[in-house]
Design goal:
The protein has 566 residues and is of the alpha+beta class. The protein has helices at 3-16, 26-33, 37-49, 73-86, 90-96, 101-111, 142-151, 199-207, 240-243, 259-264, 352-361, 364-368, 420-433, 445-450, 474-479, 490-505, 513-522, and strands at residues 22-24, 53-56, 65-69, 113-117, 120-127, 156-159, 164-167, 170-177, 180-185, 218-222, 228-233, 272-277, 281-286, 299-304, 330-333, 336-342, 380-383, 408-414, 437-443, 459-465, 526-536, 542-543, 559-560.
């Protein structure tokens, strides 16, 4: 008899006797359970072995036996749901609990955090949505960018603590001229599938970058000697090693699997490899053949808790959410902001009157005051007056502008975001006061950044996050998938682009990021909305859990002090 069948039989028995200890006999029970007397003995013995009931058989003809319930139907249901949660079967567990999301959240909370199984250290963290795209060549949200850093390596990488470029797959490099660079590869590096990385993988990976505006000056990429990569450029770039720290420049196998496989199960050379990625869990295992220091935590499990709306889920290892009166030990202000991007090419903002109206009515002050804190959980927002914290490029007291001719405004934003719906509701409220209607288009992050239906959209609500704290990190967002280029007057964009080209050619000139950000804001191309406070709850036995610029923590650097968990 299967375990589920036995549970069903127990539930029938429990329901029939209303959970009350009772005098009964085998014949009565056989009728309740619809089975023979012989099978009834077997069922009762199994229930006794599991500790669900006690059975005191009668002595003497015509006597009644005694049935004592040691467990309740609810407890059995709860134990069954707990096992389903442990197996990652969250939807069946929710159904087993009568679709009670709060009870499911409690069960999940019991199993999150830190554990040791068969000598392997495991960290389990919750998250509120699935990771459907981990392909570094596709548009990635902040958390996906963090995960890609754990899975892949580039020729160079950014040491976030020192804010310096250091070797990764390339152990050394040199510049013969500002247009000719040579990188020397580490030998015997392996991909997660066991294959050896060779120069061809690097050549093909870098060739794939040429279609992106940020890397358009890559002219020819060759391998003149084993483990040697030569890059020739179409214009001077004295900062190429810095550019190659960009997440798009990580190295993938020359022969990629299908696009869908590359998005869900990418193959890299990094400290962690993907072993499971579905709508329930993303599981990363430490890669034992990693060329660097082997990760200290063996397994990182990210549990996808879609539908559990009791709280906003953050990357914490000891609880699902931090109560309002408790905050993580360390909070850092996100290197970026939520913003509105105007379509100044073929949207309403191409009309100066509409642009002035949007600037005067859709700033952070009028929107934040209309947002319901209860709808955004534990996310802490503050008004942004520039694209990065510390930049003050907007005038919070901008003069009111007249309402243009009445018509519909179209807003698009990425789906599955805990804040954007509430921001859109606030925008709708502002527009409604002026007799305007709002049409909302919720799209995938890829469709937003790749410009799907761009000609039909007036403004985009989106977010930016920097991969590190240096000024040049801003440029990855500015050029990202032509998200800004396609909705900005071409002459204005080209003028900003030339500033970047000039900066790349000069060794000592400061990065023009703030100048570019200021022009984007003052021209009305972008309206900064909110900065968010990010934090990782580092209380407890996990050591080295320092929040990074993505609001997560470096998986390979954390470790569990022995004796700190059961």
């Amino acid at each position: 008899m299967s375990g589920q069948r036995l549970k069903t039989q127990f539930q029938r028995l429990y329901t029939h006797f209303s959970g009350q200890d009772s005098d009964t006999n085998l014949q009565d029970i056989s009728e309740i359970l619809f089975c023979t007397r012989r099978n009834v003995r077997m069922v009762i013995n199994k229930m006794v072995d599991k500790g669900w009931i006690e059975w005191e058989p009668a002595i003497g003809r015509g006597k009644q036996s005694r049935l004592v319930f040691q467990s309740t139907d609810t407890e059995l249901q709860y134990h069954h749901a707990r096992k389903l949660v442990a197996d990652g079967k969250l939807e069946p567990a929710l159904e087993a609990l009568g679709n009670d999301a709060n009870r499911l959240a409690q069960l999940i909370q019991e199993q999150l955090g830190l554990t040791t199984q068969k000598g392997r250290q495991i960290v389990r963290v919750p998250y509120y949505r699935a990771f459907t795209n981990l392909n570094p060549l596709r548009p990635l949200r902040r958390s996906e960018q963090h995960l890609v850093r754990q899975i892949f390596n580039g020729l160079t990488r950014m040491n976030e603590e020192k804010e310096e470029v250091e070797g990764d797959l390339a152990h050394h490099w040199e510049s013969f001229t500002p247009r000719h660079w040579r990188f020397y590869l580490r030998p015997a590096v392996r991909f997660h599938d066991g294959s050896l990385l060779d120069s061809q993988d690097v050549l093909v990976s870098l060739e794939r970058l040429k279609s992106h505006r940020l890397f358009r000056h890559l002219e020819t990429i060759t391998s003149p000697f084993p483990n040697t990569i030569d890059i020739r450029l179409s214009h001077d770039d004295r900062r190429l090693p810095d550019l190659l720290t960009n997440i798009m420049a990580v190295i993938q196998p020359a022969m990629l699997d299908t696009a869908r496989e590359a998005e869900l199960f990418p193959v890299g050379t990094g400290p962690y490899k993907v072993v499971q990625n579905d709508k329930q869990r993303l599981i990363l295992e430490a890669f034992d053949q990693y060329f660097g220091f082997r990760a200290l935590i063996d397994v990182v499990e990210i549990w996808i808790l879609t539908g559990v709306t009791a709280c906003y889920l953050q990357p914490s290892t000891d609880k699902i959410a931090t109560p309002v009166h408790e905050v993580p030990e360390r909070l850092t202000l996100d290197e970026g902001c939520n913003y509105l991007l105007m379509n100044r090419v073929n949207g309403l903002a191409s009309d100066p009157e509409w642009l002035a109206y949007f600037q005067s009515r859709l700033g952070p002050v009028p929107l934040l005051s209309r947002m319901n804190p209860g709808e955004i959980g534990e996310i802490r927002l503050i008004n942004a007056y520039g694209l990065l914290p510390g930049w003050t490029d907007t005038n919070p007291l901008i003069s009111p502008a007249p309402v243009p001719a009445k018509r519909m405004v179209t807003l698009a934003f990425p789906q599955h975001h805990p804040v954007y719906h509430e921001v859109a509701r606030a925008i709708e409220s502002v527009l409604a006061e002026d007799g305007l209607r709002l049409k909302v288009m919720e799209m995938s992050n890829t469709d937003v950044l790749m410009g799907k239906h761009a000609e039909k959209i007036d403004l985009w609500l989106n977010g930016m996050s920097m991969s590190h704290h240096r000024d040049d990190a801003f440029l990855a967002w500015f050029y990202s998938f032509d998200h800004i280029f396609r909705v900005m007057p071409e002459t204005e964009f080209e003028a900003l682009d030339q500033q970047v080209v000039h900066w790349r050619a000069m060794a000592s000139q400061p990065c023009p990021s703030h100048d570019i950000g200021s022009i984007l804001v003052r021209s009305g191309q972008v309206i900064p909305l909110f900065h968010a406070w990010l934090g990782v709850n580092s209380a407890g036995p996990v050591q080295g859990m320092e929040p990074n610029s993505m609001g997560w923590f470096d998986f390979k650097s954390v470790w569990l002090k022995p004796g700190s968990t059961s």
